[in-house]
Amino acid sequence: MTDIVITEFMDEAAVAMLSARYSVHHDPDLFGKPEELARLVGDVPALIVRNQTQVRGDVLAAATKLKVVGRLDARPRHPKAMDRSDPLYPARSKEVTTLWRLAAT
């Protein structure tokens, strides 16, 4: 059984790290295959997406065992992220990962 489905590009070292501990299905083009995505998420507890994956409609309805969705956000490129004098520079300059917990465990 697959533990994690990754639907878009993810650093290969990070995928390898996850694969050492979990059963991972990584298809960087899966975001463009909604029928296949809906089939794959039916039995997985975790889904990792980026900005192109749509988790709604048939995909969400099929995800009956999904407990967490992780979204990998790209490193910010706006001027504030590069402004070292900005008090929030340390936070704005880092890559952000957002997690949505779908079920209490």
Which features does this protein show?
105 residues; Rossmann fold; 5 helices; elongated
Structure explained in plain terms:
The chain is an alpha/beta fold and 105 residues long. The chain has a single domain, classed as Rossmann fold (3-Layer(aba) Sandwich), CATH 3.40.50.720. Helices cover 28% and strands 19% of the residues. The protein has 5 helices and 5 strands; from the N terminus they run βαβαβαβααβ. The protein has helices at residues 12-19, 34-40, 57-62, 79-82, 89-92, and strands spanning 4-6, 24-26, 46-49, 68-72, 97-101. The protein has a 5-stranded mixed beta sheet with strand order 2-1-3-4-5, with helices on one face. Helix 3 links the parallel strand 3 (46-49) and strand 4 (68-72). The two termini are 20 Å apart.
Mind summarizing the main beta sheet? 5 strands, mixed
User: Which overall shape is indicated by the principal axes computed on the Cα atoms?
Assistant: elongated
From the N-terminal CA to the C-terminal CA, the straight-line distance is: 20 Å
Question: Based on helices, strands and strand pairing, what is the structural class?
Answer: alpha/beta
Mean pLDDT level: 85
CATH superfamily assignment? NAD(P)-binding Rossmann-like Domain
The tally of structural domains comes to: 1
The total strand number stands at 5
Query: Within the CATH hierarchy, at the fold level, what is the topology?
Result: Rossmann fold
Order of helices and strands: EHEHEHEHHE
CATH architectural group: 3-Layer(aba) Sandwich
Q: Any low-confidence stretches, pLDDT <50, length ≥5?
A: none
Helicity range of the residues? 25-40%
**Radius of gyration from the alpha-carbon trace, in angstroms:** 16 Å
What topology, given as strand order, has the largest sheet?
A: 2-1-3-4-5
Total helical elements: 5
β-strand amount: 15-25%
What CATH first level would be assigned?
A: Alpha Beta
